[in-house]
Structures are given as structure tokens and as C-alpha cells.
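This part of the workshop introduces the protein records we will be handling. An example says more than a description, so a record of this kind follows.
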Amino acid sequence: MEEDVSDREASVEAEQFVLDGFAGISKGRKIRLSVKAWNQFAVEGVWLRANLHCHVIAAGEPGMVRDWYRRQGFDVLAATDHDEVTAFPPEQDGLVTLPGVEISRMHMVGLGLPEAPPQGDRSAAGIAEAAKAVHDRGGLAVLAHPFWTGWGWEELKAAAEAGIEGFEVVNAICYRINGKSRADQLWGMLLDRGYRPAAIGSDDAHSVEDPFAGKGWTGVLAADRSPEAVLEAIRAGRTYASEGPELRAVRWEKTGKVVVECSPCVACHFTSRAGGLRSRIADGLSERFELDLAVEGYRLGSYLYVVAEDEHGRRAWSSAMEVEKSETDR
């Protein structure tokens, strides 16, 4: 069995939520539930729509590509061409741009990089070296389309142990290629072992004419509209990966409820370790979903993330929030 590394210091950027001695039920047994959670979404900031994986040189002139994404309602765009850093023209219209690169052999995106790292070999050691190379240059490492790439557990674990900050839960272009757009199950394997890379969504577009350009994106809760604030928010896990739905708020309330506000959806899946927690299915469309810890808290594991699902089956996955829980009879 792999080592569980969930016992680590929670982010100081997250708000601590505590329920102590809360009355609950566990399969008909009366219990007292104590929950300590760290909600990184309980901060002041602005939600930004970001595409953090875009091949600008293949798509066209950088200024044109930037303007196209601005017209589609994006707030942040990263240039992540294969093995070279592409510069955007000076900022216009408030669109935040990030320099970056995709390391082709590793299928790893580096954000905030002034230069491209060297290539490595396709192995567990190689992917760890690629993450270190990104970090050594002051960048942030994201594992791109892991299901499509075909990484196994050893490579995924090596990337997580090397400190990758982001994991592409959804990559829109991979849907068109062979249907391998979602990597949420691979991400869940890392979460179950205590790793917490932020949930990232992207389109991975090589052309703005592609019908899937702009169809995958990352919601980023940033302190302000600056490259530094965007990168800080990703590192703190204040993100969600989306195929369409918007997450607007995730709250832990003293009443014992976990509340999600979102764009109109038919369901919200409250998800924890292994088989933990429950789904909430709306009667029609809803912009608010609640989980009652008095009823479902006994199913809570070492983390919680939420998945909003719209009427077309498109989903949005929040990054995971750290949780500690204990229960006693009452």
C-alpha cells in the first residue's frame, strides 16, 4: 500500500472551520461529530476565468489569440507553446497574460517561466526532474492531460512528490482527439493518498477555429487581476476545473451545512476519500446545493471537493479542501 501523506500542515491561506461536539447520526447510531476543515475559498477576491494551456504559435499571431480569448470572456491567458516561451504584446483591456511552456516529452506545463526548461526522459524520475526544473526557474508546474498522456501510478506519484501545483482534471481538446478529456479519477487517486494538486481545466487549443477552443477553463479566486495573484491563488488551491458550470462560492457554515453556489445545475456531488459523502440531485435546475453534516458527516474523509453538473452533463470540479474528523457515541 502506498504511504498516506495526508497528515501535513494545512495552508495558512485557508480559513479554519471547526465544529466541536456536533450532534449527528451514523447509520442510525447517535454520535457527536468534531470536524476541522480548511476552506481556501473563504477569502476575499475576484473569480477569474483562465485558460492556462494554449498553443499560441500554432493558433496565430499572439495579439490576435489574446484578443480572441478576451472576446470569449476570459480574464487570464497563458502562452504554453511546446518547448519555447512566447511573449504576448503589452497588456490591453485588462486581460492578464502569463508566460509559460509545455515540456513536450513530459507533457508538463510550466507557468510563470522566463525560459523553457530542458527536456528529460519519460520516466518517473524524468517527470520529477521536469517539475524541479520548472520550480528552479521560479515557475509553477501543472501535469497536462494525464489520462491522454498515459501516465501510470508511479509517474503520477513522482510528479506529486516533486510538488506539482496543478493537475489538469479536464482538457477539452482531448475530447475531440479520443474522448480522454477527463482525468478526475487519476486526480482522485492522488487525493486519496494525501496529495493536493489544484484542479485545473484547459482547452489546450492549437487553433481558435477549433470547436473546442475556450470549452475548458480554470476558475481562479485571486486577490486581484495580476499575474502574481493568479499564480498565488493556484498554489493555494483556490481553483476549479470546468467544462461549463461556474462555481461562485463554497462555504462551511456553523449550522453544520456545506453550501455551494453555482450557475444553474442539476446536481452537486460532495466528494471525499474513497466512497465518502453524497450527491445532491435537484428537481430541475438549482444555483444552491447543501450538504448537512449532521446527517452525512460520518462519511467525511480527509478531504472534500465538490463537483457541479449542468443539464448537459458538463462538470466543474473544485480543488480539494483539507479535513480532520473524529466521532464519539452520545
Q: What stands out?
A: The radius of gyration is 20 Å. The chain has two domains: 15-43+246-329, 46-237.
